[in-house]
Amino acid sequence: MVEKEERRTYKTFAEVKETLSPQEERFERWRNTLGLFLGPLAAIILWLIPMPTISYKAHVLAGIIGWIVVWWITEPIPIPISALLGAVLCVIFDVASAKVAFAPFADPTIYLFLGSFILAEAMAIHGLDKRFAYGIMSIGWVGNSTAKILFAYGAIAAFISMWISNTAATAMMYPIGLGIIYAMADIISEKIGKDIDPTRLRYATGMMLMVAYAASAGGIGTPVGTPPNLIGIAMIERFCKVKIPFFQWMLFAIPILILMFILLFAIMYFLHKPEITHVKGSHEYVKREKEKLGGWTRGQKNALFAFLVTVVLWIIPGFLAIIYGTTAPPSKFYSDRIPEAVAALIGAGLLFILPVNWKEREFTISWKQATKIDWGTLLLFGGGISLGNLMFDTKLAEAVGKGLLTLSGATSVWGITFAAIFISILVSEATSNTASANMVVPVMISLSIAAGVNPVPPAIGATLGASWGFMLPVSTPPNAIVYGSGMIPITKMIRAGIWFDILGGLLLWVGLRVLLPIVGLA
Length: 522
Description:
The protein is mostly helical. It contains 23 helices and 2 strands. It has helices spanning about 20-50, 55-75, 80-90, 100, 110-125, 130-135, 145-160, 165-190, 200-220, 225-240, 245-270, 280-295, 300-325, 330-335, 340-350, 365-370, 375-395, 395-410, 415-430, 435-450, 455-465, 475-485, 490-520; strands at about 355, 360-365. It has a two-stranded antiparallel sheet. The radius of gyration is 23 Å and the shape is globular.
């Protein structure tokens, strides 16, 4: 046996429904039942609405997406099964072949999730996440304030995401957040003399959403922070003949990011107000719990080593991009050989190699332990990628984008930029940020040129808007990761996502309107 078999069980939201109040139970039953019939009804209505500008397959796909999105929101069946159903319906109704529809379930991002989840599992098994958590909580500035803990946690995630992907940043911070939540629950339980279920805390929901949203927002800070930035910069250089250097991008992106994080903290704090603002005696409690942890175990050292190896492999591309540029041979060679998914699997693989007891052939994690990760989240994101890819293959996404722009009636450079931001945000809710940027950015550039206005601000607006998908678990990989914690009811993710989508989109527009002329891009 490994040194520490004790492991926290992170429940899904469905599994904690038994703790709901009678009023909440009635609402959940009503929501599930209504959604069961609304999903197919939405598909039928969308199919009956004439859509002469799109192909037959795109029309069918619109109905299927309407059905699945309704079921994702109302949860009449488990969300991962809804994701699988979307791909199944696409095959049944000839939108795509089985090979095409199910190929995204083997997308590299899925394996990035897999490796990250196994790393998080090993950290939980050996108590490494708790050791990290108490370390963060013992920082003098943070003190015993739950607000400061929330702020510091999000700020760290946003900063890390400036240099590595939002998915990798969330994967790094996710187990630490879980440890903080459980430690805070322990403190509250000791204070009131009653056991507290961490999955039911408002603070837990806020913490999980904070790391996902902060990681996605942090990616806008540098050109290498997220794939849409590189896509947008490349398209601007190719189609607009304007090259945006690394530092020039940061001149307008960093101020926007700082303001955006302040907005995010305010939203997270007021929508999910901590049950208590201060925990008196938390320092004493942390000190006592640290002493209980004792010295570092072999399992903790092994898990930390695997974690750090993975982090280093994730960070290297950012340094290569700074030193050589993103298109230089060293950068391209490394990205081709060790993409993020491979880095995560290398780290996870080390857990099965590093021994805790060589004599008994016991390693840092066993396969039985590794299988306890949240497989449903992997299915969920695979289904989202599948539907997103088919939106582009059938030209449905392009039709939606053009239709929304026509409805907006925008003709000026900043009017088109405003529309570009919110169209990109809307599209990114249903598909990956990379796919959203690939579709929306070139459309905005072509429309701007046709309208006779500077295409750079709309293109940058669409690029940044592609990182703003916060309403659904499949909107971004970070959303999917934290949804797997079981601490975020989907209704609360939608509520917080709507606020951050709208207010964040407005802040993006104001920030670009003020800063792009200053840095010479408008």
